[in-house]
Amino acid sequence: MTGKYLYKYVSFDADMRVMGMIDNYSIMFSPPSRFNDPFDCNPRYLDSPNPRVSRPDLFKYIDRSDLSPAKNRVLREQAVNRMRAGLRDDSMRQTILADVGIVSLTRNPWSVLMWSHYADKHTGFMVEFEIRSTFTKEQKGHEDRWLVAFDVKYVSERPSVSYWGRTDMSDVEKTFTYKSEEWEYEQEERVIKYSGGAGAFPFEPELLTSVIAGSRISESNFQLLKNSIRAANKTRQKKIKLYRAEIDQKDFKLNIPKFSRPRLVMAK
Predict the structure, then answer these.
(1) Which end of the chain is less crowded, N or C, counting CB atoms within 10 A of the terminal residue's CB?
(2) Which helix (H) or strand (E) element contains residue 26?
(3) Is the pTM of the predicted complex or chain greater than 0.70?
C-alpha cells in the first residue's frame, strides 16, 4: 500500500472507548457542533434581497394553483421569514450539521502543542494511518472506511456562502475545510461523512500502521497499548508498530526512538 501518513492524537477516556481504534478498528467521527473553534464549519452566510429571483426552483414548490396571487405571496413571505429566522438563530445550520461527522487528522506527529491539547498533556497516544492514494475498482475508495482526507485551508478572512445560492463543491469546501490561519500549526486533514452523523465507525484495518505513546503516559496505560497491539498483531500480516515519545534533554522538541518519519518544517 502506498499513500501518505496521517495521525490522530487521542486521550484515554474513562471507559477506554478510544482503544476501539486498535481493538475493533473503529474511529470516532465527531459532530461539528462540538468543535472547539466557534468559527469552524461556520461560514458567513449572505442573504439575498430577493430570494425568489435567486432561487426560483425553491419557490415553485411553495406557490399553490388553488390560491390567489395575494395568498401565494403571503406563503412566500412566510417561507422566507422562516428561513431567515433559521439563519439568525443558527438553527438551520445546526440542522444541516446534525447529519455530518468529521475525523480530524494531522500531517504532523511531532507537535508539542497538539500532544498537549489533544493527547491530554502527553499522557495519551497517537495513531498513525497510511492513507491510500489509489484504489482498485473493488475497493470503493469513496467509502468512509478508507479515511480519505481533504486538506484544511487556512485563511485570513472568514469564508462567505450565499444562503440562497445553489450549493456547489466550493460552498462545501468553505463550510467544512476552511479555518482561520491561527490554526495552521495543526496541519489538519479531514475525513468528512455527510450522512449518518457522528459516532464510532469502522475503518480498514490495514490503514493502521503504528501507535506512538505519549512521553507522560502511565505505565498501566502503556501496558494496555502493548497488550492490545500484541492481540491485534496475531491476525495481521503487516504488524502494528509501537513507539514511545521522549522529551528531548536539550531542545524544545520530542524524540520518538526508531520512528523514522521526517519532522514537518513549518513555513515562517
Answers:
(1) C
(2) strand 26-29
(3) yes
Record the cell numbers describing residue 50, joined without a space: 430577493
Query: What ranges make up the beta strands (E) of the chain?
Result: 3-10, 26-29, 44-46, 101-106, 125-132, 150-151, 153-155, 160-162, 178-180, 188-193, 199-202, 208-213, 241-244, 246-247, 254-255
Strand order, beta sheet including 125-132: 150-151, 188-193, 101-106, 3-10, 125-132, 208-213, 241-244
Cell readout for 253 is 522538541
Q: Enter the C-alpha cell of residue 86.
A: 433559521
Residue that the C-alpha cell 502506498 belongs to: 2
Residue type, 260: S
Contact indicator for 106, 187 with CB cutoff of 8 Å: yes
Other Cβ atoms closer than 10 A to 76: 16
Q: Which three cell numbers stand for residue 104?
A: 480530524
Mind listing the pLDDT tens digit of every residue in the chain (268 residues)?
557 999 999 999 888 889 999 999 999 999 998 999 999 999 988 877 777 766 666 666 777 778 787 887 787 777 777 777 777 777 878 888 899 999 999 999 999 999 999 999 999 999 999 998 888 777 877 888 999 999 999 999 999 988 776 667 888 899 999 999 999 999 999 999 998 889 999 999 999 999 999 999 999 999 999 999 999 999 999 999 999 999 999 999 999 999 999 888 766 5
Three-class SS state of 71: helix
Cα–Cα distance, 129 to 206 (Å, whole number)? 9
Cell of 226: 502493548
Amino acid at the residue 172 = V
Look up residue 33 and give its three cell numbers: 457542533
